[in-house]
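Translate structure to sequence.
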C-alpha cells in the first residue's frame, strides 16, 4: 500500500459533496487507489453536530449512513482513544476554534 493520508473533516465533506473548493491535487490523492485514506472518528462527531445545529443540512444521508459511505469511498476510520484525545488536547499549537472562543469572551 502507498502513502497514508489523514483526511480532515473539510476535505472529507468537500470530496463527498463534490465541492469545487477541493483542489485538483487533493482530488488526485484521494482518487489514487495506492493511497491509504484515513478519516478520524472525530469527523463523524463533528459532522453529526453540525448537522444537528443546522450548519450542515445537506449531511442528513451522510449522518444516517456514515459507515457505509466511508466504506464505499474506501476511507478507513481511525478510532480515537482517550489517550489520543488527551495528547491532542495537550498540544501547544493554537487552534482557530480556541482563538474564536477567546474573541467572543467564552471558553
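Result:
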Amino acid at each position: 500500500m502507498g502513502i497514508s493520508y489523514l483526511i480532515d473533516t473539510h476535505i472529507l465533506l468537500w470530496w463527498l459533496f463534490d465541492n469545487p473548493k477541493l483542489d485538483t491535487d487533493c482530488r488526485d490523492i484521494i482518487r489514487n487507489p495506492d493511497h491509504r485514506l484515513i478519516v478520524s472518528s472525530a469527523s463523524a462527531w463533528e459532522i453529526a453536530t453540525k448537522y444537528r445545529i443546522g450548519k450542515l443540512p445537506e449531511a442528513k444521508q451522510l449522518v444516517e449512513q456514515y459507515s457505509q459511505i466511508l466504506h464505499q469511498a474506501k476511507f478507513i476510520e481511525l478510532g480515537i482513544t482517550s489517550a489520543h484525545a488527551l495528547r491532542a488536547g495537550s498540544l501547544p499549537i493554537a487552534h482557530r476554534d480556541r482563538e474564536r472562543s477567546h474573541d467572543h469572551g467564552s471558553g
